Amino acid sequence: MALTRLFDRLGGALAYLWSGWGAIASLLLFLALWDFGNRIYGSFILPSPLEAFAALLDLFAQGRAQEQLAATLYRAASGFGIAVAGGTLLGIVAGLSMTAAMASRPLVTVLLGVPPIAWIVLALLWFGASDGTPIFTVAVATLPITFAGAMQGGRTLDGDLRNMAIAFRARPLLRFTDVYLPHILSYLFPAWITALGVSWKVVVMAELLSTPDGVGAGLAAARINLDTAQTLAWIVAVIGTLLAAEYLLLEPVKRHLERWRNDAV
Amino acid sequence: MSTPYIAPSIAPGKINRLLAYGFRPFFLLAAGYAVIGILAWSGFLLGWLPPPPGDPFTWHMHEMVYGFGGAALAGFLLTAVPEFTGDPPHTGRTLAILVLCWLLARLAMWLSGMFGVLPAAVLNLMFLGALIGLVGPSLWSRALGRHRAFLYALIALWLIQTASFYAWDNTALWTVRDGLNTAVGLFAILIIVALARISMVIVNGALEKAGETETSYLARPPRRKLAIFAIALFLLLDVVQPGQTLTGWVALAAMAATLNILNDWHLPRTLRDPYVLALYGTFWFIALGFGSIGIENLTGGWAGRGGRHLLSVGAMGLAVLAVLSIAGQVHTGRELAYTWQIKLSFALMILAGLARAVPPQWASDSYTMIAYGMSGLLWVGAFCLYLVHIGPMLWRPRADGEPG
Q1: Would you say residue B2 lies in a domain?
Q2: Residue B3 in domain
Q3: A15 CA to chain B: closest CA distance, Å?
Q4: What is chain A's pLDDT, residue by residue, as a tens digit (265 residues)?
Q5: Which residues have CB under 8 Å from B343's CB, separation 6+?
Q6: What is the helix, strand, coil percentage profile of chain B, to 5?
C-alpha cells in the first residue's frame, strides 16, 4: 500500500517534470529569437545564446559564479524571508479586523509607491556598503506585496465555514489548519511568488549600486569591461535561478497544498 | 466512428474487392514498395545491385518519401476523410485511375535513366495533385474546416515536390535533397495531425481494455499546435538558414514541443498495448530526430544524416506500419489482433529506426555500414510480416460482411 502510494507520488513528480517540456519549447523559441537578434546586431551589441552560455560556463569554471550567486541568494532569501514572515503575519492580523484593514490600505499604497531605487539610497545612508543594504531594500520592497495578499486572504474568510467548524466542535488548531489556512494560502502563494520575483530583481539592482560582491557587482564589473557576453551570462544565471526556484520549489509546494481544489471537483 | 454513407454492394472478383475502399490497394502498395524500395537501395549500397537511375541518393529519398509515403498517405486519406466528414469514399474506377497513376509514377522513376526526369515529374505531381483534388474539397468544407491542417500540409508537400523536380532537372542536387528533407518534415506534421485522431480511438480503447475506467485520453489541441508551429518554423528556416544555430534552436524547440504532446499519453497501463506503444514511439522518433538535428546545428556536426533518418525510417516507418496495421484490420471489419506477428513487426521497426540513427563517428565505417544494413533488413522484415499477416485481409471481403 505504502509502495503504491510512493509510486503514485513518483509518477506525479515525473508527470509534473514532464509538463515542463511545453515551457522549454517556448524558451527555446525565445533563444532562437535571441540568436536572430545576434545575427542582425552582431556579437558586440548582442552576443548569441551560445556565447552567453560559454561565458557563464567560464564564470562557473573560475568559481566566480557560485560565489556571487551564493552571496546574492543569501541577501535575497533574507529579505524575502523577512517580508514573508512579517508581511504574512501582519497581513492576517490586519485581515481579521475590519478597522485594521481599512487603516492599513493607504499605508500599503504608500509603501508600494516608493520606488525601490529610493529605498536603496536610504539604505545606503543607513547601512552603508554592507549586506544590510540589499536585505533591507528587498524586505521593504516586497513586504507590501505579502502583506496585501495575506490581508485579502484574511478578509475573505468564509464566516459560514467558520461557524460550521465551531458547530462541529473543531478545536482552534484544527480550525486554523483545516479551515482558515487552506483558504488564506490560496491568496498567499500568488503573493509569495510575485514577491520572490520582485526580491530577485531588487537584490541585483541594490547590489549593483551598493556592494562589492554578488551578481549585481558582477554585472557592474561586466559593464565596466564592456563585456556584453558576461553581462548576458549573469542575466541567464539570475533568470535560471529564478525559474528553478519557482518551478522546482514553489510551484510543487503550491500544487501539494492546493490538492483540495482538484479533489473537490 | 460510424460512417453514415452506405457503400454500394461490390461486384465479386478480387480486383473489384481490392478497389472497394482506398486503403485496400494503397496499403498493399505502400508495404510492398517499402520492401522493394529498401531491398533495391540496400543492394546498391552493398554493391550487389546496379545503382538506381540518376543521382542514387536523390532517387532513394524521393521514392521513399513520395513513393512509399505517398501510397500510405493516399490509403490513409481516402479512408479517413470519408469517415471524418461523412462524404462518400472514392472507389472503383476513380480509385483504379489513381492507383494506375501511382504505378506509372514509380515506373517513370525507375526508368528515369532512360527517359529523363520530366515524365517522372509530371506523373508524380499528377498523382499527388489528383489525391488533393479528391480529398481536398471534403477537408476544406466539412466539419467546420477542422481537418484543413491535412490540406495545408498536402499542398505544401505538392509544392515542395514541384520545387524538388525543378531543381532536379537543373542538376542542383543539394537543393533537391533539401526539398526532400523538407518533405520528410512535412510528413512529421501530417503524422502528428493524423495520430491526434487515431490515438483517441486506440489509447481510449487500451484504457478500457486495461480496466482503467476513471481516466480517459484526450489529444489536446494546444500542445499539438505548438509542436506543428515549431516544426513548420524549423522547416522554413531549414530552407533559408540551413545548418545555422538559429535553425538549431528552433529544431530543439520542435523536439521539446513534440515531447510536450506526450503529456497526454502518460496514462496508467496503456503503454503495454503494442498499438499504443507504436504510436507513442513515433512521437519519440520525431522528437529525437529534431533534437539531433538541433544539436548538430548548434555544435557543428554530430549525427550526420542520422537525425533525418530518425524522422524518416523511425517516425515515418513506425507511424505508417502502425496506421496500416490498425486501419487494415479495423476497416476490414475486425477487432485489433494482439498476435506475435504484429508485436514483432513493431519491434523490428523500432530497432530499424534506431539502427539507422547510429552516428557515423560512434563506430568505424564498416560497423556503421553493418548498422545501416541491419536497419534495412529489419525494415524489410517488418513490412514482410505486415504483407503476410495483414496483406490478405486487404483483398478479402470484410470479416463482418459489411460493404467497403
Answers
A1: no
A2: no
A3: 7
A4: 566 677 677 777 788 888 889 999 999 999 999 999 999 999 889 999 999 999 999 999 998 888 999 999 999 999 999 999 999 999 988 888 888 888 888 888 898 888 888 999 999 999 988 889 999 999 999 999 999 999 888 888 777 877 888 888 888 888 877 888 888 888 888 898 889 889 998 999 999 988 888 899 999 999 999 899 999 999 999 999 888 888 888 778 777 777 666 554 4
A5: B274
A6: 75, 0, 25
Is B260 in the A-facing interface, judged by CB distances under 8 Å? yes
> Contact B345/B392 with Cβ under 8 angstroms?
no
ipTM metric = 0.87
CA distance B199 to chain A (A): 19
Structural domain containing residue B79:
14-395
A-B Cβ pairs (cutoff 8 Å, strict): 58
Question: Exposed, middle or buried, A171 (CB in 10 Å: 0-12/13-18/19+)?
Answer: exposed
Select the residue of B233, B250, B260 nearest A21 (Cβ to Cβ). B260
- Cβ atoms of B290 and B318 closer than 8 Å: no
* CATH code, B309: 1.20.210.10
What residues in A contact B271, CB-CB < 8 Å? Answer: none
Written as nine digits, the cell of B170 is 537543373
Domain-located, residue B73 = yes
Domain tally, chain B: 1
Task: Set out the domains of chain A in order of their start, with CATH numbers.
Answer: 49-55+62-264 (1.10.3720.10)
Nearest Cα residue in chain A from B298: A50
